[in-house]
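#struct-help
A.M.: can someone run this one for me? Single chain, 232 residues.
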Amino acid sequence: MISGAKSVTLSLGIAAIFALLTACGAKQVIVQGDFPQPLIEPLPLSIGVVYSDNFANHEFFDEASGRAESDWLVSTGAAQVQFWDTLLGGMFKRVVRIQEHADLHTYENQLDAVIVPYIQELQYTIPTHTNVKVYEIWMRYRFRLVSLDDIHDHDNGALSYNPDVSFADWQLTAYGKTPTAFMQTDEAAVNLAAVVALRDAGANFVTSFEKVPQVAQWLASRDGMNTSEAAD
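D.P.: on it. Structure tokens below:
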């Protein structure tokens, strides 16, 4: 098991990780949870969302540093997509997924902006030789708000954009914690800590979105534009 907070940056191929885990009997968690929509009045915006492959398949692998510890592989990607689809779907009037070239044409002139989320960092603490059995996960996200017109596709099907032309660029942190006293296994405790961290991220996003200076400026410019159009 793992003691102390660790920032995980190691990335291995799925096949290689699976082979390693099978050989050493590591602990594996595919994060799952229930994510209700926020009980708020949706903002009158039509928003696209782009999940990169790294985001949609996000996982962290940590190799044991001693015989008393276990390797860990925790996959959060599917839960991330499920959570943010639900959160954004309850926060905005309309939300669509931008996944391929055809979507750029399907939603042309229909979206106010596109949100692109990233997971910049994940740290976690798993107890080993201690009487304080607390499981904790920290996540730091980065969000960019861009125009659909600024997203481009490549021959390999990947979508990209120039971050220098984004409307807004901001970070957000989240924290999840669960005591082992309420769980039957280490894996279940880690799963719950991740779910709590996701819900914390959602609460932070909802309460801070309109307060981000660049977002507030963008929304104000839209209000001014709508007022002018109404006057005409």
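A.M.: thanks! Residues 122 and 139 are 5 Å apart (CA to CA).
D.P.: also worth noting: The chain is about 35% helix and 30% strand.
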